[in-house]
Amino acid sequence: MIIGISSFCWECFNETEQTPEDYQRLKHELNSDIDFEVELNDKNLYEFICPKKHRSLTQLQEQKFEILFDIASLALLDGYTKEAVSTYSSSLERFFEYCILVFSLKNSVKSGDYDGMWNLMAKQSERQLGAFLALCLQEGITNRIVSKKIEFRNDVIHKGYTPSSQEAIDYGQYVLSFIQNTLKELNQNSSDYLQQAINIHLTKNTNKIPKNVRLNTASMPTIISLRSLNNEDYGNVPLIDSLNSLKENGFYKHFYRKKIQ
Ligand SMILES: [Zn+2]
User: Fold this and answer.
1) Rounded to the nearest whole angstrom, what is the distance from the C-alpha of residue 3 to the centroid of ligand 1?
2) How many angstroms separate the alpha carbon of residue 259 from the centre of ligand 1?
3) Rounded to whole angstroms, how far apart are CA atoms 169 and 175?
4) From the CA of 211, how far away is ligand 1's center (Å)?
5) pLDDT tens-digit series, residues 205-246
6) Backbone phi, psi, residue 60, to 5°
7) Quick check: 256 and 39 in contact, CB under 8 A?
8) How many Å apart are CA 207 and CA 194, to the nearest integer?
9) d(CA 161, CA 154)
10) Partners of residue 5 on adjacent β-strands
11) Which helix (H) or strand (E) holds 176?
């Protein structure tokens, strides 16, 4: 999946008087209305080199589970119901990982100890689900797992079952409600730790960046939209409405280019 990131160079801007006029002039010179195309990757680091050879790296603020949920929805809109269900399921699994981190932060688990524990379950999703369920129970977080949805997901992924559009939408809605309602619950009693988990995500790349290279953070409004969690009406938009608006949403078309390199 190719995505579009900003082609504006802040190093070039630093070399000017940094007035709004300089910004506009540079934007024009760099042709920054046209984004730079990069391939979505697992490192969450995207390189851009400006015409003056300034090198900058961009990371996305959004969590992996948010991006996966968007990609599943785009696949669904294009008619790939099986791929959509599989990717909605990946989104939910990465959300379990995110929650396990939040609970560990809340319980003052040292990062080295957390990493050691995670390495033992990183490749086994059943272990991750088990850890998530046990922690939800201890933390008083509602268990939203529906066994029939797990069976459905296994049929799609392991038995080659081809889901109908409605089944894929229903499964996506289950995952969306699961994630958004759990986030709302966490935000009520663990908001500091939600924020800490976001900060860990944003600073993960800092020590990988060479000294003379700038790290930018870009953000885009995903369907799950963790960044809107504090809005009063958070989680009230049904998936079908988001899917319908996505078809016309210029921002989505601009960001997700739906092609390969
Ligand atoms: Zn530059």
Assistant:
1) 21
2) 27
3) 10
4) 16
5) 888 888 888 899 999 899 999 999 999 999 999 999 999 998
6) -95, 135
7) no
8) 22
9) 9
10) 36
11) helix 165-189
Q: Tell me the pLDDT tens digit for each residue of 82-141.
A: 999 999 999 999 999 999 999 999 999 998 999 999 999 999 999 999 999 999 999 999
Tokens of 229: 């969690």
- pTM listed for this prediction: 0.94
Span from the CA of 181 to the centroid of ligand 1 (angstroms): 43
Read off the tokens for 187: 């935000």
Distances (CA, A) of 160 to 4, 82, 152: 33, 8, 11
Per residue in 21-67, pLDDT (tens digit) is 999 999 999 998 888 899 999 999 999 999 999 999 999 999 999 99
- Contact in structure between 216 and 58 (CB atoms under 8 Å): yes
Cα–Cα distance measured from residue 48 to residue 105, given in angstroms and rounded to the nearest whole number: 34
Task: Please tell me whether residue 145 adopts helix, strand or coil conformation.
Answer: coil
